[in-house]
Amino acid sequence: MLLTICGLIYMNTAIGVTILSFVLPSATCDFQMTSEDKGWLSATPMLGMLIGSYFWGCLADTKGRRIVLVATLIADGICGLLSSIAPYYLLFLLIRFFNGFNVAGTMGIVFPYLGEFQPTKYREKILCWMELFWTFGIIILPGLWLLAFPESPKFLLEHGESDKALEILVHIFVKNTGQKPEEYACKSLRGPIRSGKSVRSLRLHNPNELKELLAEIWSQTKTLYKKPYLRNNSITCGIQFCLTTSYYTLMVWFPELFQRFDEFERQYPDVSASVCGVSSIVVSNSTVIPCDQNIDEKVFFHTIIIGLACIPTSFWLPLCVHRLGIKFFLVFSLTAAGFVTIGLYFVRNSLENLILSCIFEALTSLSISTVYCVMVDLFPTNLRVMAAAMSMTFGRSGALLGNLIFGFLIDFNCIIPIIIFSAMLFVSGFLCWLLPNTGSEALE
């Protein structure tokens, strides 16, 4: 049940992150956008994610996982509704900023929340199944489903609320076994000894308690930049920066490239050209901003094919993760994705572009989910979401930069962003190789 709910939440974030890729081609007409305007439009949600990652991470590590998940889902839904009726470009940008701000909280918390309910033996495999939900990210999630689920018992225990944590464990026992609560073998829990008031109980409207809460947040943030967490935190932030820059930039722009290939092939049937050649020719031959109110159905069909291409790797990851090791998947997928990105420069028609796009999405989406799985094992409960938020902050700053670069250069010198993004994927693959072993390898 918990995997299903968390999977649907992750599926919802997939919608929030990739929805602009469908908006870009047709929004050109509504807002009369240039490629630079599209770059800003695709970068603005990333700016919101950059800021939101740390904000929501701080709250989740001090006030609880569940309450923040519920809040971000509801806020994201409201922003989504507002953005669908926004009549002006700048207003649309502002609302998409808040969309990104809220999505960042959901993405950074859902993996730790799910992982903290799992025993170490099964945690890695359970988390890897989340990749399948990202692949099927085409269903809207009613955020209030989550209200039926409890707070993470591990989080409660770490904050000295052992009685509440025990109640939740008894509830899980009853649900999983069908036995009576009194048959649960564990009668008490021993958590860390804490003096003073629990951070979770601090009230935001009380100035003194707010000051204490901010001090705790700052203390946790500083801890991530000290031994023994400095090395792992630096590596994961570097991985997220390089991987997210390439992934979110190219995935947002793939439908736009499909649309340009379609327009080029209509104008020049039986003529082959590279991605860079198609973009420059389509733009130079247009006396106005390239605009088509009716996007060709092939664009949507191609995007569905890209999603279907992820299904094999989505099953491959959880079924083989214990046999091959999570580092193998990360290093292999990111290195291979780097070569695929280089290959984008050499495609000569829409079919070749589609094939490479499918391989790129299958490999990089696998890596995105796997990095989150690794982070659950690398950091303790009280720092876990904060560490994920910190790495996401670096990742979204890269995505913001990448979308701006691509928007400014796609029409005139697109070889430069292709080289940059492929190099970043190679770097992230190398950084993954430096990660410590986790999961079953660490247990052995």
UniProtKB/TrEMBL annotation:
Instruction: Please tell me the species this chain comes from.
Output: Glossina pallidipes
**Entry-linked PROSITE patterns:** MFS (PS50850)
Please tell me one Gene Ontology term that the record gives under cellular component: membrane
Record-annotated Major facilitator superfamily (MFS) profile domain positions? 2-440
Pfam family for this entry, one = MFS_1
| InterPro entries referenced in this protein's UniProt entry, alphabetically | MFS (IPR011701), MFS_dom (IPR020846), MFS_trans_sf (IPR036259)
Molecular function terms from GO: transmembrane transporter activity
Signal peptide span: none
Could you tell me the membrane topology recorded for this protein?
A: Multi-pass membrane protein
Q: Which UniProt keywords apply?
A: Membrane, Transmembrane, Transmembrane helix, Transport
Its transmembrane ranges are 7-27, 39-60, 67-91, 97-114, 126-148, 299-321, 328-348, 354-375, 387-409, 415-435
Q: What is this protein called?
A: Major facilitator superfamily (MFS) profile domain-containing protein
- Lineage of the source organism? Eukaryota, Metazoa, Ecdysozoa, Arthropoda, Hexapoda
The places in or outside the cell where this protein is found are:
Membrane
In the UniProt record, does the keyword Transport occur? Answer: yes
